[in-house]
Amino acid sequence: MENVNLCQLGETKPPMTSRQAPWPISLQTQDQHWAIYSSDEIDILKKSIILSHSYRPWVFKLASFHSMSFCPCPTSSSIITRCSVTQFTHPLLYPSAPVIAVGSLTRNRALWKPLRTSLILASCRPQEAVNFPRIKHVHTSRIVNPRKNDSSNSCGNSSSSNSTIITRAKARINHFTTSPQLSASNLKMSSTSTFKIKGLTSLDLPSDKIEVEVENIEKGKLLLLKHGGQIHALTANCTHYGAPLVKGVLTPDARLTCPWHGACFNITTGDVEDAPALNALHKYEVFEKDGGVYVKADEATFKENGRLPVSSCSVAQQDQKVVIIGGGSATIGAVEVLREHGFNGQITIISKEANLPLDRTKLSKALIPDPEKLLLRPQEWYTSVSISVVSDEATSVDFTNKTIATKSGKSIPYTKLILATGGTPRHLPLPGFKELGNIFVLRTIQDVQAILAAVGSTKKKEIVVIGSSFIGMEVGNALSKENNVKIIGIESAPLERIMGAKIGRIFQNNLEKNGVKFYMSASVDKATPSSVDPSKVGAVHFKDGTSLPADLVILGVGVSPATAFLRDNPSVTLERDGSLRTDEYFAVECLKGNNSDGGSSDVYAIGDIATYPYLGPGAGQGGHSHVRIEHWDVAQNAGRSVGRTIAHAFSSNSSVPLKAKSFIPIFWSALGGQLRYCGNTMNGYDDLIVKGEPEAAKFVAYYVLGETVVAVASLGMDPIVMKCAELMKRGKMLGKKDVIEGVDVLKVDLA
Questions:
Q1: Are 557 and 426 in contact (CB under 8 A)?
Q2: CA distances for 560 relative to 257, 628, 630, angstroms
Q3: How many angstroms separate the CA atoms of 243 and 391, rounded?
Q4: Is the peptide bond before 276 cis (omega within 30 degrees of 0)?
Q5: Is residue 502 within a helix (H) or strand (E), and if so which, with residue range?
Q6: Which of 99, 156, 378, 514 is the most buried (most CB within 10 A)?
Q7: What is the C-alpha radius of gyration for the chain, rounded to an integer number of angstroms?
Q8: What per-residue string of b and e applies to 175-204 under the rule 16 or more CB within 10 Å gives b?
Q9: Which of 717, 728, 718, 663 shows the shortest CA–CA distance to 694?
């Protein structure tokens, strides 16, 4: 931000020097931090301030501070690093209270009008302050612009005489109206109270993490953490699927990783660091008093599933256009971080799916047909953060003129483009599989609905699943309770290519207990019609002449990168598998030199279509350093990475190089037990070391290449896999010798 200026609205006095003023009077940026210079104390009953970065303001009431620092929003929506937040206010409840509005001005720009887009209704939690959108009408009495070189009454200094600075402002909010989507009457205002922690007399914690209960609050649990000499109080459960975070992994750099699926949170703010969580954790003030331990909180937060990192945003930069093609987890990861990190330009999602981004992992695991139960964010959220969702299909991209053509005939311009089109399920090019009905793939909610319609209410349907990897195993397991399910695989054991035959047979045994029958090392020859209805499948035949009866067939034979619309594009070079090769920022390599600015990245690829540099253990050992991973969590983390990169490119700090953020692939599955997996075997492995009791569904498997552990899988041994992922990320993972000797990975220091 080149210039930061200050005006006072409400009952005001003429500007004074910072030493004289009883309220903050001057603000400037130092090292990209907000620095507020004021007297030692502020009257918290009458004064409040608005802090703004990239047109994302928040209101705080502050107790006391001197030269406190506020971290700007590129790394978090609202972080207060060195001041005590005690109470919040807003102009509706306290209309006579002075409000100091801080705004940014750029060269040759008219004065920034905070009341137009940033009047705040603040809850008692800064992260959930509600932006009162689009104040349409405000009466002000007087705004004075400075004469050149006249700074006698200035509240801020300009680095350019062409900038407009508010030097003195007297204004009363006499009347205003709001946009129809939000009014004062339907806003839920928060209130902070003090709550006692049950059974705790001091903050001298017995361990680095303990879960505690709040007195007189049903299901009122909190997590207390000891880190760096400080105690932090946070939401007790992961906001993804509710895992107890007390069993998570706490790192020296203040990261807390969920023990189940690898979601990661910053314990100083509660913000999300890694997927798959979308909501951040609530953060509470915790303190000792009269022989007890207390927290300050809004009671409602104890029952909430975390907080929204961003609840509202108005587009301020119409010329900045980010377009995302695709509507999956990679997309939701990108748009969440774009808004959270302060990008206030246009965001458009082009998706050919009939629904908003949803939790696709539940399609194969649970066959849920209702999209409303799977949506990652409701329509209201996209509206509130100014994200346009276009239900259409991209047919081509003009990378020179930066436009996207769609099936409906639209031409959509972009400044930055994110390709997140996902995968296209493969079909079998064998007789009968293209012609006959009741043969399904599983990718969308419509696929689930079609499968369930074919199963119908009649029990014990004959269901043949072709493919013994994750999709085939999961859908077979989900349908096995009420039907006769048979799984066909070309490998000697399910999941052999990824997990190895030894581990694959463990999951085969789990599903066989549920009645699933397996036909492994099998070669399918054809599908033939039903004698009852010749238009539908009736049997699946093997090359050895045997056959299986089938009322319906589900194909789980992999996916191909959904890049057909780019296949004939002269600007694009696809990899052999149809994917796009990217750099560590997920910028498409073949398009870097196509940009108007001579090489910076305007096009990114994420998710199933991206082949990207792998930075985990074993990368390059077998000659391969790039990898393409088809998993929901990896796609979302890639989206988060690109969102961060693009937001940085449009920020005032864009001249400072941004280090690429790496992550270790994590995936999971439910196959008669909760499988966890981290790492990658892109270059293979030459040894598999299994610890524990596989027959009791409690084990850890270490995949070793040479002396390097390149991947880890577990069943019933949380949080070992998540601890291994953190060790891999830091280059501190155990070696083969350590594993053989029985070193306890949970006791290995992360520092």
A1: yes
A2: 31, 11, 10
A3: 34
A4: yes
A5: helix 501-512
A6: 99
A7: 29
A8: eeebeeebeeeeeeebebeebbbeebeeee
A9: 717
Place of tokens 């290995």: 748
3-state secondary structure of 273: strand
Q: Look at residue 71 and give its three-state secondary structure.
A: strand
Tokens of 5: 């200026």
Q: Contact at 8 Å (CB) between 187 and 130? A: yes
Whole-number Å distance between alpha carbons of 523 and 570:
39
Cα dihedral 354, 360, 364, 370, rounded to 10, equals -50
Whether the Cβ atoms of residue 588 and residue 581 lie closer than 8 Å to each other: yes
For tokens 């690429």, name the residue. Answer: 660
Q: Which pTM was predicted?
A: 0.77
User: CATH classification of 666-747, choosing from 3.40.30.10, 1.20.1740.10, 3.30.390.30, 3.30.420.360?
Assistant: 3.30.390.30
Q: Beta strands 423-425 and 559-561: pairing type? A: antiparallel
Q: List the chain domain ranges.
A: 3-186, 193-303, 317-424+561-649, 439-557, 666-747
Distance separating alpha carbons of residues 13 and 728, to the nearest angstrom:
58
Residue 524's nearest CA partner among 451, 439, 449 is 439
Task: Extract the runs of DSSP E, i.e. beta strands, from 515-555.
Answer: 517-519, 524-529, 537-542, 547-549, 552-555
For the stretch 95-145, pLDDT in tens is: 333 333 333 222 222 322 332 233 222 222 333 333 333 222 322 222 223
Check pLDDT > 60 for residue 515: yes
d(CA 476, CA 468): 9
Which of the 8 DSSP states describes residue 677? E
Q: Which H or E element spans position 362?
A: helix 361-366
pLDDT tops 60 at residue 339: yes
d(CA 705, CA 702): 10
480, 595 in Cβ contact below 8 A? no
| Short-list 596, 650, 637, 644, CA closest to 729 | 637
| CATH superfamily label, 317-424+561-649 | FAD/NAD(P)-binding domain (3.50.50.60)
pLDDT of 660-674, one tens digit each?
988 999 999 999 889
Decide whether 317-424+561-649 matches 439-557 in CATH topology.
yes
- Gap between the Cα atoms of 446 and 455, Å rounded: 14
How do residues 352-400 score in pLDDT, each as one tens digit? 998 999 999 999 999 999 999 999 999 999 999 999 999 999 999 999 9
Q: Identify the DSSP state of 281.
A: P
Residue 349, Cβ density class (10 Å: 0-12 exposed, 13-18 middle, ≥19 buried):
buried
- List, in order, residues 6 or more apart from 396 with CB less than 8 Å away: 404, 405, 565, 566, 569
DSSP assignment of 109-120 equals -PPP-HHHH-EE
- Which amino acid does the sequence have at 690? V
Q: Find tokens 């001041």 and name the residue.
A: 83
What would be the CATH architecture of the domain defined by 193-303? Answer: 3-layer Sandwich (2.102)
Architecture, CATH, for domain 439-557: 3-Layer(bba) Sandwich (3.50)
DSSP-derived pairing of the beta strands 79-80 and 68-71: antiparallel
Q: Is 304 exposed, middle or buried (0-12, 13-18, 19+ CB in 10 A)?
A: middle
- The answer to whether residues 467 and 557 touch, using CB atoms and an 8 Å cutoff, is yes
Closest CA to 511 of 375, 396, 669: 669
Angle 105-106-109 from CA coordinates, rounded to 5°: 85
**What whole-number distance in Å separates Cα of residue 463 and Cα of residue 547?**
13
Two structure tokens written together for 490: 């070309």
Q: How far is CA 309 from CA 273, 373, 464, in A?
A: 11, 21, 44
